[in-house]
Amino acid sequence: MIAMLVQKIPCLCKRLRKGVSNIHKTTLKDVATAAGVSVSTVSRVLSGSASISEETCERVRAEAKRLNYTLNSAARSLRCDRTHSIGVVFPDISGEFYAICASAILKYARKKDYAVLFTESGRNTVAEEKAVRALMERGVDGILFIGDNTHDEIVIRTLANEVPIVTGDRHIEGIPSVTYNNRETIYAVTEKLYESGCRSFVYVGEPTDGQDNLKMRNLGFIDFISSHSDVQAESIFDSRFHDDKLKAGSELFIEKIKAISPDAIITSNDLIAIGIISAAHKAGINIPSDMSVTGFDDLRASAYIIPSLSTIRQDITKLAKLCVSMVDDAINQKPVQNAVIMQEIISRESAALA
Fold first, then answer.
1. In the chain, which end has fewer C-beta atoms inside a 10 angstrom radius, N or C?
2. What is the dihedral of CA 115, 120, 124, 127, to 10 degrees?
3. Could you tell me the domains of the chain?
4. What is the Rg, in whole angstroms, of the alpha carbon atoms belonging to the chain?
């Protein structure tokens, strides 16, 4: 019996090969015929490279799906010298801001037919250089650098290699960027606290070296204090915030802020503010009766702590969408202009900002 099966195997394989060779592979022409359009129209619809009526697009996509047609991305890349992928460099993707940003970038990049490769710099020069080199070796069409500008020279060298670049939540002269109006917003927050009766302030945040967004926030605070002679103010920066903002905020309140006893504490991050509020509560200090506290970012937890946190909301999804759109324009050699997103002041229980 086994001998008979062995003898039949060559014949069975021959039949199988013949059957496979007779399977018709769906082509662009097949989809075009079924949809009643030209081959070039099918190509443009599936690659998203031109503006075509939604009705035609839906008909073409429906026929492509019915015929099980898949656009050959590898062949397309060879023809137009593109990989249809973009790289994204974050300092640290674990935080809520960057996690939301990454998810939104992925969403909008897919709509433009880009695959996305994420990587982290870890705020380390060597790590960032390796990360960027890896992205370039994979032939990404463009790169987004989101947040943290400790190593601007790496971005500038990357641009010298003729790779389209856009920065988000950071700015480098001569490179397209999407930023927030941090300076103006912190000025407005300090002014609202002043109008509510506060006259002594403490600004608490991460060191501003190499981070434009943090530098602009502190400058907004300094701008207001400099224009009002009847206030007292101090800025406190601590590198411990890079590791654990909640813990460092709590520790700094006990170590320094409690003794200063300001009317208001303005922080550069919601987690810092939450750590301060927790320590104040344990020390028997009432927020906001004894002192006001503000955050920054409007993290999900901010509305649910007690007291709820007054803060500043940033439209992270809009940042991601603009970054993707701008790098796509740069890749396609279209004009690109810098964009600034307006922030929103959120007044809750920890400080009167209305």
1. N
2. -60
3. 23-71 (1.10.260.40), 81-180+317-341 (3.40.50.2300), 182-315 (3.40.50.2300)
4. 28
Q: How far is CA 189 from the centre of its chain?
A: 24
Q: Are 140 and 85 in contact (CB under 8 A)?
A: yes
> Do 314 and 297 touch, CB atoms closer than 8 A?
yes
Whether pTM exceeds 0.85? no
279-331 pLDDT per residue, tens: 999 999 999 999 999 999 999 999 999 999 999 999 999 999 999 999 999 99
DSSP 296: S
CA 314: distance to chain centroid?
A: 11
Q: Which of 247, 246, 223, 249 is nearest to 236 (CA)?
A: 249
Alpha-carbon distance 288 to 263, whole Å? Answer: 9
Per-position DSSP letters for 317-349, written without gaps between them: HHHHHHHHHHHHHHHTT-----EEEPPEEE-BT
Q: Cα–Cα distance between 35 and 57 in angstroms, integer?
A: 10
- The tokens 């810092």 sit on which residue? 272
CB 333 within 8 A of CB 232: no
Instruction: Please report the pLDDT score of residue 47 as a whole number.
Output: 62
How deeply is 196 buried, as exposed, middle or buried, from its count of CB atoms within 10 A (0-12, 13-18, 19+)? middle
How open is the CA angle 187-248-167, to the nearest 5 degrees? Answer: 55
Q: Which residues in the chain belong to E strands, given as ranges?
A: 85-90, 115-120, 142-146, 165-168, 177-180, 200-205, 232-237, 264-267, 292-294, 311-313, 339-341, 344-346
Beta bridge partners of 166: 144
